[in-house]
Design a protein that fits this description.
Layout: H1 10-24, H2 30-42, H3 47-57, H4 61-70, E1 82-87, H5 90-94, H6 97-108, E2 121-126, E3 138-140, E4 143-145, H7 150-160
Parallel strand pairs: 1-2
Antiparallel strand pairs: 1-3, 3-4
The structure holds FE2/S2 (inorganic) cluster.
């Protein structure tokens, strides 16, 4: 879940983060709530932001860090506006989905599980997206595309996702 549309620095984000901390401080479950909102607002949770939250909520930094690393929906790395998941499950793999991954890696200049510099795309993989009859399949955010070739996948991404 990433809602940040504009890239801003942590410094610019601090006033909003202060407000989130103020609203939740002292409440039950405040740490998770604050981290959730911070991720929605800032896009991810870098170490400096985690330290700021720890200080603001008066909890040990180690506690913040262990929550962030425990839950898979928290990310310490920036994510793109659009999350691409190319299926590498068996049905898709035998129909060439690995070639789609390689092609997109080359086109975007990033390895799998990384994000383009402009934060337009995060390139990821999945193990069966439940649409094996359409193999090879990719999912972009909530949209599923099937019967892809590397070129077709790239074209969809460039023409549909700003
Ligand atoms: S293996 Fe790709 S959708 Fe099932």
């Amino acid at each position: 879940m990433v809602t940040q549309t504009k890239i801003i620095s942590l410094e610019e984000y601090i006033p909003e983060l202060d407000e989130i901390i103020r609203q939740h401080k002292g409440l039950k479950g405040s740490l998770i709530q604050v981290l959730h909102k911070a991720q929605q607002g800032f896009g991810y949770l870098p170490i400096e932001l985690q330290k700021y939250v720890a200080e603001g909520l008066k909890v040990p930094y180690s506690e913040v860090y262990s929550v962030v690393t425990f839950y898979s929906f928290f990310s310490m790395e920036p994510k793109g506006r659009h999350i691409i998941k190319v299926c590498l499950g068996t049905a898709c793999f035998v129909r060439g989905s690995a070639k789609i991954v390689t092609y997109l890696e080359e086109k975007f200049g990033i390895p799998l599980s990384k994000t383009t510099e402009d934060r337009r795309f995060t390139l990821d993989s999945a193990r069966c997206l439940g649409a094996c009859s359409l193999a090879p399949v990719m999912m972009v955010n909530e949209d599923v595309y099937g019967r892809l070739t590397p070129e077709k996948a790239y074209k969809i991404l460039m023409e549909t996702y700003e």
